[in-house]
Amino acid sequence: MKEVKIEEAWKKKYPEQVSLAVTISKDGKPDIIALGWVMPTSFNPPMVAISVGKTRYTHKLLSEVPEFVLCFPSERQKDAMIFCGTHSGKDYDKFKETGLKPVKAKYVKPPLIEGSVAAFECKVVATLDTGDHTIFVGEILTAYISETEEKRIYNFGNYFKSISND
Amino acid sequence: MKEVKIEEAWKKKYPEQVSLAVTISKDGKPDIIALGWVMPTSFNPPMVAISVGKTRYTHKLLSEVPEFVLCFPSERQKDAMIFCGTHSGKDYDKFKETGLKPVKAKYVKPPLIEGSVAAFECKVVATLDTGDHTIFVGEILTAYISETEEKRIYNFGNYFKSISND
Lengths: 166, 166
Prior knowledge:
homodimer; alpha+beta; Pnp Oxidase, Chain A; seven-stranded antiparallel beta sheet; 13 strands
């Protein structure tokens, strides 16, 4: 093994799955962030952990309204996902700008995104400070899949595409 | 979107990356666990989070010696990775059984695994109880890549393989 800078070794993580997290402000304006740092963290009760940068607008929203909907974006949502990952909800209404369609959730205030490969309604049950990010742990209250067959998007480092299951 | 059981929606997470975490007992016996639930969680300082089931032997070892080496297994380590994911370190010496070759780490007691796509020496700096798992957050002290070109393994749900970057 050859010792290298940590950033160089992290490049070996690709392809990395991409998720979208939908959050909402106190006054009811939803926002969408693109996230690569996501992992399941319990079967029973079902939980998922997401890591959000402390300077992100999503971090502020999650502190105000501790609920989120985690969505796996589909290949056909690629451009919308890239927009969400490169613009701040402070400046843009991301549903309006991307054309992504919100769908009312059952238990939480942020909406689902229509056409996601899968979506999970989550209530934040714990947080952990980790360097320049915070881990938000969501208990999953219910889940959805797309009615149509959709392929999940992966980040290959400098481009995004789905992966064949064959 | 169609509401389904949470387990059914989680199946849409595949392909999922696979990692190996090397831990060590108080009396110096190393062990290896296969993990899917891993995410980076800070750039500065560099940190990674791993989620480990509370009943796992690795959970006990991490409580005794809070250090681990996170490795991305290569395609040619597939059989060894499957062995590590299906046997407990309580019963087996996994380096001996799999033929994986340990390499002395620089800052932590658990060894690296020779031929990993990448490896990260980590010291546990925080933990968080999450349902039936615990999140262990490791600060990354240094990192390595393989001297040869290796491909990372992914879990496709019922089989494991590498993914082409083309």
